[in-house]
Amino acid sequence: SGYISGNCTNISRLQANRAGFVSAYAMENGGEDIAELFSYYVTYTPQEWNAVIQRAGTNGAALINQKLRMVKDYMQSSWGIDIDDLRDAILRRGNSISTLDLEHLN
């Protein structure tokens, strides 16, 4: 499984990616693995996500993509959410944060 509970601070991003994880913290346990994968995917641009996949190499990328497929299928079948559409909305809205009037919220 590759989980190393309590020891993720000694793992580099490259090592984690090559082992099939999006971050060293994702190596803590299965729950953190899926949470990190989901949060990275929906907040990273396609170019940033592709960089993770490229860093992961053939084996790591296959594992990350397998988990991503599982998350996509689950979100679609259980919640009716296309996480690619969700990512588009998050990135679009994130780009407009600097233009929001946070002084007058009414």
Into which percentage range does the β-strand content fall?
Answer: under 5%
H/E topology pattern:
HHHH
Uncertain residue ranges? none
Q: State Rg.
A: 16 Å
- Provide the structure class: mainly alpha
Number of helical runs?
Answer: 4
Outline, from the CA principal axes? globular
Describe the main β-sheet briefly.
none
- What helical percentage do the residues reach? 55-70%
Protein traits:
63% helix; 106 residues; globular; mainly alpha
Describe, in plain words, how this protein is organized in 3D:
This protein is mainly alpha-helical. Helix content is 63%, strand content 0%. The protein has 4 helices and no strands. It has helices spanning 13-18, 30-43, 46-79, 83-95. Helix 2 crosses helix 3. It is globular, with a radius of gyration of 16 Å.
Compact summary:
The chain is mainly α.
Write the layout of secondary structure elements.
Layout: H1 13-18, H2 30-43, H3 46-79, H4 83-95
Helix pairs in contact: 2-3
